[in-house]
Amino acid sequence: xxxxxxxxxxxxxxxxxxxxxxxxxxxxxxxxxxxxxxxxxxxxxxxxxxxxxxxxxxxxxxxxxxxxxxxxxxxxxxxxxxxxxxxxxxxxxxxxxxxxxxxxxxxxxxxxxxxxxxxxxxxxxxxxxxxxxxxxxxxxxxxxxxxxxxxxxxxxxxxxxxxxxxxxxxxxxxxxxxxxxxxxxxxxxxxxxxxxxxxxxxxxxxxxxxxxxxxxxxxxxxxxxxxxxxxxxxxxxxxxxxxxxxxx
Length: 248
Ligand code: PGA
Known about the structure:
The protein has helices at 20-30, 44-53, 78-84, 94-99, 104-116, 129-133, 137-148, 176-194, 214-218, 235-246; strands at residues 5-10, 36-41, 58-61, 88-91, 120-125, 158-162, 202-206, 225-228. The chain is of the alpha/beta class. The protein has one domain (5-246): TIM Barrel, CATH 3.20.20.70.
């Protein structure tokens, strides 16, 4: 089964109510590009308003707790995201793994909770610069995949996002050869574990994707789309990435 391209905006801790118009413009433009799935993950506070402003569009959270409810001050549970109208969630972003000490075990539990609540999941992995420079990037990332991808799920609902930490927000990107080597290794590891179902799992690239480099990065072997931070905040910057994905 051919995998549809998937372009996802991660707004991180950016966006007040006034930014909803950008999301509407992005989703309106995305509707002109048939072959691409487009989603936006705004801050929790904007999910409901974004869904209301763009009914039927894919809106997601940037994290969730692994419990369905309880005494976890400040956290948001997967069923709450569903309740707010979200259809997906990012888990294991490096800003969560590093800033909030989330382990592979934590990320796996979050992914499991999200899938159990009916959400699609974008599960992030990626190596720090020192690991890349020491030649250990593939081994490091495959260990994250092994430790954080759950065992039993509907393959079409789980995407992996490979995001080298040193490429996030820096303007630096790996070579296409390095991206292909990593994505190929992730695909092979998933196939070894899940068999034919691995063919349905999308593997996104993330880290300094923009309108100028999107066609090259998204055209690389085994790259099924992009997770985009900074360039997803405005339609002017994000729509060209969607268009590049549609043109492949
Ligand atoms: P960036 O962020 O596109 O701003 O590099 C990507 C991400 O962190 O998901």
